[in-house]
Specification:
The chain is mostly beta strands. The chain has one helix and eleven strands, in the order E-E-E-E-E-E-E-E-E-H-E-E. The longest helix is centred in the last third of the chain and has 5 residues, at 102-106.
């Protein structure tokens, strides 16, 4: 059974930082492309950033460039999202996701999803 568990969300003020983690079990972590998605209240889900199985960053949304960084630690089966200079518009539920296909990830259709962690940025 595949499990993806996010952590690290919380409430911060504008300009603050958070580091999200996603611990994965039940699959061959090193063989999977991984990504972070988010969904703000009343809006659709959007991709934030993706990283290939080999560790190459394959997608970073324009809205988070120069502020967010995705990384992975295959030894720990963990995906990270470092979020700096947070803005109120970053408020959302953040989800990690995995698929053997980077294409499916980029299309927003990965096979596996976490349950999400809430990020709230106050002005």
């Amino acid at each position: 059974q595949v499990k993806m568990v996010e952590s690290g969300g919380g409430s911060v003020e504008t300009g603050g930082s958070l580091r999200l983690s996603c611990t994965v079990s039940g699959l061959s972590f090193a063989d999977y492309a991984l990504g972070w998605f988010r969904q703000a209240p009343g809006k659709g889900r959007e991709g934030v950033s993706c990283i290939s199985a080999s560790g190459q960053v394959t997608y970073l949304a324009d809205s988070v460039k120069d502020r967010f960084a995705i990384s992975r630690d295959n030894a720990k089966n963990t995906l990270y999202l470092q979020m700096n200079s947070l803005k109120p518009e970053d408020t959302a539920m953040y989800y990690c996701a995995a698929d053997v296909s980077s294409t499916m990830l980029h299309n927003g259709l990965p096979r596996y999803w976490g349950q999400g962690t809430q990020v709230i940025v106050s002005s």
